[in-house]
C-alpha cells in the first residue's frame, strides 16, 4: 500500500474535484431531483451499455415507471419488450424482479445501505455501492472498469485495468477523501476521469489532473495482456437477439413457422438459441406449440 500512500497528497483530491467541476458531463440521472429508484435504473442500464444508448431509454423508463410498483404491475414480458436494443436482456428481467421486491418488501422505497441493497434481486456489489453512493451520498468505494483502470495506472503502474481483484475496493477506499461529504462526488469524478481522459485506448495524459501517476513515471509501458475480440456475427448471441427481436416486435404468441424462418443458416444453432431463451426465462412455451415473452402465456389462449 506504500504506492497508494504516495498518491494521496491532499491536493490530489482537490485537483480531481476541480477538474470534475469543469468537465462533468450533463447526464440526466445526475440531476438534483432524480430519485434513488431512477438512479438504480440508470446503474442497471449502464452495465455493458454505452451512455449515449442509455440516455433515451432511461428517460422513457422513468416516465413510464416512475416508482417500483409501477414497473412491478407491468408484466415481465412488457419490461423485456421495452428494454429494446440495450443488450443482455436478462438485466430487464432482474430489474422487474427488483421492482417487485421494492414494491412488496420496502413500500416503494429504495434502501440506502449496501447490505440491504444486496438482498434485492439482480443487485450485485457494484450496483449496491453505486446506489448507496450516488443516490444517498454515502462514503463507500465504487469500483467500475474506469476506476480500476485509473488506479491500475496511477497507483500500480499497469497499462490496463486487468482482471477484477479483491484489492480493488481497498484501493478505491484508500483514495476517498476523509470528509464523507466530499467522497461521493470524488467517486463520480474518478469514474469520469477514466471515461473521458484515462481511457483504455489513447489516454489523454496531458489533460489529466492526477500528476503523480506511476504509469507515466515508468514511461507508459505497453499493455501486454491481449484482449479477446468478441465476434458477434454468426454467434449464438446474434441468433438469440434475432429470435428475441421477433418476440418483442409481436403483440401475440409466435409460432414455429416464424421462428424457423428467422435463422436458416444453422438449424442446430437456432434451436440452441431458442432453448437458451427458454432456460433464461425470457420466453415461455405454450401448450399449442407457440412461444411468447415471459409472463405473457396467461394472456393468450390457444388458437387466439
Automatic annotation (TrEMBL):
What broad class of enzyme is this?
hydrolase
Q: Keywords, A to Z?
A: DNA damage, DNA repair, Glycosidase, Hydrolase, Iron, Iron-sulfur, Metal-binding
Signal peptide annotation: none
Q: Name one Pfam family in it.
A: EndIII_4Fe-2S
Q: Does the keyword Iron apply?
A: yes
Q: Which InterPro entries match?
A: DNA_glycosylase, Endonuclease3_FeS-loop_motif, HhH-GPD_domain, HhH_base_excis_C, HhH_motif, MIG/MutY
Q: Which family does it belong to?
A: Belongs to the Nth/MutY family.
**Protein name as catalogued:** Adenine DNA glycosylase
Originating species: Williamsia maris
Amino acid at each position: 500500500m506504500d504506492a497508494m500512500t504516495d498518491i494521496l497528497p491532499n491536493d490530489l483530491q482537490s485537483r480531481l474535484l476541480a477538474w470534475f467541476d469543469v468537465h462533468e458531463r450533463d447526464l440526466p440521472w445526475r440531476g438534483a431531483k432524480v430519485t434513488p429508484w431512477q438512479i438504480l435504473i440508470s446503474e442497471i442500464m449502464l452495465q455493458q451499455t454505452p451512455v449515449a444508448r442509455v440516455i433515451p431509454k432511461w428517460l422513457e423508463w422513468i416516465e413510464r415507471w416512475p416508482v417500483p410498483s409501477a414497473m412491478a404491475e407491468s408484466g415481465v414480458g412488457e419490461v423485456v419488450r421495452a428494454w429494446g436494443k440495450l443488450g443482455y436482456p436478462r438485466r430487464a428481467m432482474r430489474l422487474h424482479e427488483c421492482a417487485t421486491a421494492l414494491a412488496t418488501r420496502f413500500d416503494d422505497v429504495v434502501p440506502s445501505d449496501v447490505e440491504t441493497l444486496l438482498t434485492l434481486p439482480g443487485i450485485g456489489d457494484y450496483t449496491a455501492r453505486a446506489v448507496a453512493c450516488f443516490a444517498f451520498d454515502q462514503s463507500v468505494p465504487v469500483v467500475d472498469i474506469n476506476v480500476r483502470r485509473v488506479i491500475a495506472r496511477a497507483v500500480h503502474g499497469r497499462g490496463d485495468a486487468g482482471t477484477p481483484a479483491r484489492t480493488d475496493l481497498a484501493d478505491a477506499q484508500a483514495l476517498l477523501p476523509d470528509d464523507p461529504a466530499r467522497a461521493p462526488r470524488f467517486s463520480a469524478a474518478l469514474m469520469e476521469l477514466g471515461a473521458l481522459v484515462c481511457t483504455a485506448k489513447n489516454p489523454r495524459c496531458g489533460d489529466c489532473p492526477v500528476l503523480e501517476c506511476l504509469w507515466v513515471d515508468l514511461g507508459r509501458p505497453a499493455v501486454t495482456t491481449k484482449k479477446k475480440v468478441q465476434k458477434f456475427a454468426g454467434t449464438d448471441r446474434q441468433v438469440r437477439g434475432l429470435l428475441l427481436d421477433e418476440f418483442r416486435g409481436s403483440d401475440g404468441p409466435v409460432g414455429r413457422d416464424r421462428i424457423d424462418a428467422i435463422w436458416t443458416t444453422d438449424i442446430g444453432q437456432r434451436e440452441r438459441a431458442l432453448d437458451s431463451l427458454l432456460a433464461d426465462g425470457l420466453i415461455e412455451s405454450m401448450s399449442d406449440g407457440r412461444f411468447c415473452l415471459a409472463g405473457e402465456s396467461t394472456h393468450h389462449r390457444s388458437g387466439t
